[in-house]
Amino acid sequence: MNQINTNFLNQIIGLHNTDPAQQVSNSTNDFRELLLAKMQLAMQLSSQLNGSDSNILPSPFMFSPEYLPGMEQRQRYSAFETPIQQAVSAYTNNSVTYNPASNNSSVPRTEYNDIIRAAAEKYNVDEKIIHAIIKTESNYNPNVKSHAGAAGLMQLMPSTAKEVGVTDRFDITQNIFGGTRYFSNMLKKHNGNLELALASYNAGPGNVKKYGGVPPFKETQNYIRKIMNLI
Q1: Per-residue pLDDT tens digits for 73-121
Q2: Active site includes 33?
Q3: Catalytic residue from among 72, 127, 137, 163
Q4: Which domain does 30 fall in, by range?
Q5: What is the pLDDT of residues 9-22, one digit of tens each?
Q6: Cβ contacts of residue 148 below 8 Å, gap of 6+?
Q7: Hey, CA dihedral for 20, 25, 28, 33, is it positive or negative?
Q8: 107 domain residue, yes or no
Q9: Fewer CB under 10 Å: which end of the chain, C or N?
């Protein structure tokens, strides 16, 4: 322990105790620099404690987008990837991640509020998102059927209805619970990415997988924009 460079300890403590207003600006770059400094100092200290080779310490380039999830290069730093990627991704990912506890705004008043609330609670989805989907899909008309065959408030296709156990797509309760369940499944499938979940609801998860993200369909892109403006 006497051989440890105490400057590392002092610098790490200093990074934690310094006034955040002085250390971190509102820019992502400043956060990344601070994160990089803290992680490198901590890992250098860890290498001295464990007697490991400092050459295995990760390069600053591992914090760039090229080394984030999905790239083969990140595997060489697997011992460090989870905490680093989670922290960096939170500040570098431009997509919207869904958090059911983050939206406390009021919901529209409709005759279906009680059903929507019950479905939202059961499937852990913000009820305002369900309102936005219903508004965009059917404008709260439970009798609508599209030319493609989608039916009811949440415009369920026959295959989708079967998947979520809906036997009567024009039954208001079944339709709302089924549509909410399906949307919840899409959120889970895409790890809470709201835009991808909406794209899957509109264009199908197959198209999202095919294009590696939101499909280049104007209808789907406009659909996502409308939903995002309503919530």
Answers
A1: 333 333 344 444 444 444 444 455 555 544 445 888 999 999 999 999 9
A2: no
A3: 137
A4: 6-92
A5: 455 455 445 554 44
A6: 157
A7: negative
A8: no
A9: N
